[in-house]
Amino acid sequence: MGPETENGDHIDEFESGFLGDLIRPEDSGYDNARTVWNGMIDKRPDLVAQCQDVADVISAVEFAREQDLLVAVRGGGHNAAGLGTCDDGIVIDCSPMNWVDVDPDTRRVRVGGGATWRDVDHATQAFGLAVPGGVVSHTGVAGLTLGGGYGHLRRAYGLTCDNLVSVDLVTADGRFLTASEDEHPDLFWAVRGGGGAFGIVTAFEFEAHPIGTKVATVETWHSIEDATVVFETWRDFVETAPRTISGEAIIWGIPEDPHFPEEHHDDPVAIITAVHAGDPDEGEELLRPLREFGSPLFDFSGRIRYLDLQQGFDPFFPAGEHRYYQGSVYLDSLDDEVIADILDRAETRPDPRILYYVWNLGGAIADVPEHATAFSGRDHPYLLAIDGKWDDPAEDDAVLEWARSFQRDMQVHSPGEGYRNFPGLGEGGDAQRTPERDETDDRLVEVKDQYDPTNVFSRNHGVTPSESARTDGGAGDE
Ligand SMILES: Cc1cc2nc3c(=O)[nH]c(=O)nc-3n(C[C@H](O)[C@H](O)[C@H](O)COP(=O)(O)OP(=O)(O)OC[C@H]3O[C@@H](n4cnc5c(N)ncnc54)[C@H](O)[C@@H]3O)c2cc1C
């Protein structure tokens, strides 16, 4: 039973002061409002509160707390496990808050809690600036930043959360706080990698970097028969490349896209990419050996607009239309044996649209000491990520078993955890955390106890308050 039938007076009061839209199951926009990126997630919240501003967020949090509703917070709606929605309760949807303000002199960028990377790139590129974001532009800034954030600029400028200067946030008890190195530093530590467990971020303040509007890139597509030499060559290149260069080695099927001849659609391929964050002339020189390697089937390398780089993969991952799985495993190394084990799966993918890829890490990511933020795993040199995409529910078991067994088998080459923003479906079998608790886990619980002792923001990366905080109901932070 929804809040409107049980609590008519309360919802009327809530609605009368709410600037955005409140959408209920009987409303025509309901299906659109409840849809998230992963078409496998089919949740039916009682209410979607589409917030226009901070006041809306505060009243939505207060309403949810008073009515004891399950709360999901939504930014870009891309979390593959569906953390941005829920059954029954309330979705506090920040997506209307997608404003971006750039100060080109200080290179500070303030971003609303519901913006996407497309919004940020659009606003910053007018000044030749960039905030290191993700590699698909319709992804939300909020979830990506709160969980860490890897993108094309990662080795030059670190994780997205490393570029955070402050956040404005509404806590579980409806307070509005700013967290930075100087204000609520414990909270600021937690939101850089600890996920959305501590409050609703209404504004992110980032430092942007002067990368210009064009960057030098390599993107060559090779026959699957050459995959071993392709991966080994990419590995040898990135292991000695300067930190301005970040890249991926990818196994995929040629997509059904007009850029590719129809007779090759779905053929398995090995792709290598690299991006130079800096002067494009210098970048082209540095990238030349990688670009000139082998006999690619397709070569999309060159100097391209940063905006095009950021949006290049967008069409292949549309929201709401397909079933998706995103899992990952950090790798200790990418020696020849690891590459062989990775490539073993190239031909067994249950659907040609499934891709998997290795990101090189290090550089600025590893400059930050491990416990300086809540992000775990800064010293891992590589991340293997698996992106499943399919349509037929009858294929679910085959794809999930394939992806999970791949991650399980790669554990022998892994420190035992994965990137929490590639969460699988959030169920057992999706390797995301090491079983042992560490200093970061303990500190996250302390911050959770302080700011959300009753677990109002429970749809998060697995941070729950301690039993004693729940019992006390929390003393709060003054
Ligand atoms: C197509 C695609 C491409 C991706 N590419 C990358 C990539 O290049 N690099 C990378 O690091 N990751 C990438 N990801 C993973 C991405 O970081 C996560 O999916 C992330 O959760 C997306 O954030 P969101 O705001 O869109 O998600 P949502 O589903 O809206 O939210 C995710 C989590 O954040 C919380 N949250 C959302 N908004 C707020 C807010 N305003 N305040 C507090 N908590 C909030 C939610 O409650 C939830 O727990 C990609 C994902 C997809 C689907």
UniProtKB/TrEMBL annotation:
FAD-binding PCMH-type domain residues: 40-211
GO-annotated molecular function: FAD binding; oxidoreductase activity
Assigned keywords, A-Z: FAD, Flavoprotein, Oxidoreductase
Comp. bias intervals (Polar residues): 452-468
PROSITE patterns per the UniProt record, alphabetical: FAD_PCMH, OX2_COVAL_FAD
PANTHER family, per database record: BINDING OXIDOREDUCTASE, PUTATIVE (AFU_ORTHOLOGUE AFUA_1G17690)-RELATED (PTHR42973), FAD-BINDING PCMH-TYPE DOMAIN-CONTAINING PROTEIN (PTHR42973:SF39)
Family per record: Belongs to the oxygen-dependent FAD-linked oxidoreductase family.
Protein name, UniProt field: FAD-binding oxidoreductase
Organism ancestry: Archaea, Methanobacteriati, Methanobacteriota, Stenosarchaea group, Halobacteria
